[in-house]
């Protein structure tokens, strides 16, 4: 059965300005991939909160809050994060569109495992010189173990923030890989055959 996101993609595709999208969900669910895909399609910049937050040796950057607030104060953006505590309220209240990637736990586990293995093997630089290491796999702070530990809490966090949001927004709740493909296909169709207006 095809999931329908018709109203959401129409709203997104037909707005030429003032588009502020939060792509929410647990780590490893595919937020950055989807945010980048949408960015290329509608020409709106992605704000990588992780890149702003993590300094060398994974230490929080002191300028994170001021820089992040300045960026989300812009008319249009896509954020590939549910937010950090310092800016969560402002981020969610300014969002015009929320995409909740809410995939099953086992899907998230395997996606994160494969991603982390590749990053560790290739010594991929993430932000400000930080890399995942073999040693991190044996600590509680490794992204895979952290995501599994926080899975239920993150779902509750996103659900509560959606319910508490006071400003108008459009919501796409994506609960499977197939639904994610349906969303992308419907957005492609609307951008090609719909009419985008100012």
Structure write-up:
- The protein has 198 residues and is α/β, with parallel strands linked by helices.
- Helix content is 49%, strand content 10%.
- Strands 2-3-1-4-5 form a five-stranded parallel β-sheet, sandwiched between helices.
- The protein is globular, with a radius of gyration of 17 Å.
- The model has no long low-confidence stretch (mean pLDDT 90).
Second CATH tier, the architecture = 3-Layer(aba) Sandwich
Distance between the termini: 34 Å
Beta-strand share of residues? 5-15%
Q: Report Rg.
A: 17 Å
Low-confidence stretches: none
Order of helices and strands: HEHEHHEHEHHEH
Which structural category fits the helices and strands? alpha/beta
Q: What is the domain total for the residues?
A: 1
**Count, helices:** 8
CATH class: Alpha Beta
Tell me the strand order in the biggest sheet: 2-3-1-4-5
SS elements, strand count: 5
Assigned CATH superfamily: P-loop containing nucleotide triphosphate hydrolases
Q: Please state the overall shape, judged from the principal axes of the Cα atoms.
A: globular
Mean of the pLDDT scores? 90
CATH topology: Rossmann fold
Which percent range fits the helix content? 40-55%
Largest sheet: 5 strands, parallel
Protein name: Adenylate kinase
InterPro entries: Cytidylate_Kinase-2, P-loop_NTPase
GO molecular function: kinase activity
Keywords: Kinase, Transferase
């Amino acid at each position: 059965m095809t999931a329908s996101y018709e109203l959401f993609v129409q709203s997104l595709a037909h707005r030429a300005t003032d588009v502020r999208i939060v792509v929410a969900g647990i780590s490893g669910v595919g937020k950055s991939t989807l945010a980048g895909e949408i960015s290329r399609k509608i020409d709106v910049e992605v704000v990588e909160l992780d890149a702003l937050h993590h300094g060398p040796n994974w230490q929080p950057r002191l300028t994170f809050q001021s820089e992040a607030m300045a960026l989300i104060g812009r008319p249009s953006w896509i954020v590939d994060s549910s937010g950090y505590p310092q800016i969560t309220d402002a981020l969610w209240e300014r969002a015009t569109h929320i995409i909740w990637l809410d995939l099953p736990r086992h899907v998230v586990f395997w996606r994160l495992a494969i991603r982390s293995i590749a990053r560790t093997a290739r010594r991929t630089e993430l932000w400000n010189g930080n890399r995942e290491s073999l040693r991190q796999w044996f600590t509680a702070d490794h992204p895979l173990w952290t995501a599994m530990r926080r899975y239920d809490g993150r779902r509750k966090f996103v659900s509560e923030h959606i319910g508490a949001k006071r400003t108008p927004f459009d919501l796409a709740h994506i609960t499977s890989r197939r639904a994610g493909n349906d969303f992308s296909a419907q957005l492609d169709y609307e951008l090609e055959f719909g009419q985008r207006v100012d």
